[in-house]
Please model this.
Amino acid sequence: MQNGPTQISISIDTEFSIAGHFEDPQRNRPVAEPAVYGLVDGREEALGFMLETFDRHDIRASFFVECANYCFFGDEPMQGVIRRLQAAGQDIQLHVHPVWLSFNRDPALGEFPRHDDCAGRSFEELTRVFSTCIAIFERWVGHKPLAIRTGSLRADDNVYRVMQALAIPLSSNIALGVYQPAESALHHDSGRHRIHGVMELPVFSYQDLKLAGKRHKKALQITSCSWPEMKHLLWKARRAGIENIVILTHPFEFIKKSNYRYEKLTRNRVNQQRLQKLCAFIQAHGEDFVAADFTTHHQRWVQSEVQQPYIEMPSRYAIGRKLHNKLNDMVWAY
Model:
């Protein structure tokens, strides 16, 4: 077993929603605050709930904040979100959804195509995308980000070349259970991997299902992993000597919405309970597990790569989770 506790990084992609604007721009304005705050009967069931949970269990998470939305909304409201995170003592890193840059009207920045992938862009174009978002991040946060996560976890070799050129030391762009890059050199399930001088910490991916000889790979996410499955996985990873586990979530996962316009909201009790149980678990098992954010650990992480064993889970957990998630999706008040 490794020396020291297994490090669990709870990473939160904090972003607004296009909300059908491109299909019907006259009727559908992009949605900002409801997608992050999730206000239900005067209580924040998304960001507010998360910050309360982290504070109660002494957890410092890493919020990957999307900054290109500045081109549509201006400095507010995302800068207000950042002030909340700073006041709560949470870690803040950069999330990039390039599609928001297509709203840019500043001639100094130039024009950007209307598509959201960071993968498949030229070195020059991606440099312009990342540089623009880093500049917004610096103005809002007060310093450069130490880590970047690309939108929808879409990355290719060029992403890391650009990050190296811009002196960004850490990334978390890979989740093989979500998207498999074309380059085999980016096929990492977990651990730490130096790619063109940038240390990549993938979202933890594992085998969750094996039926009729077919294997399925799953990324570790609050919204799609049941607590029994997650707990079993964490202990199995611990016994295997795994050092780093990156978990993915979003503020909007802790609410349910009636439609993509966020017109009616209620809290997502199932996902809220999963986060609460995870945080309580980390706090209760401090000899074996510790919350690890990107800023606090970046100097140690960039020093060495880590190869970790692939974890295979019993299929019964996936079957139970699928039924539970289906019930939660179908029943508004579940």
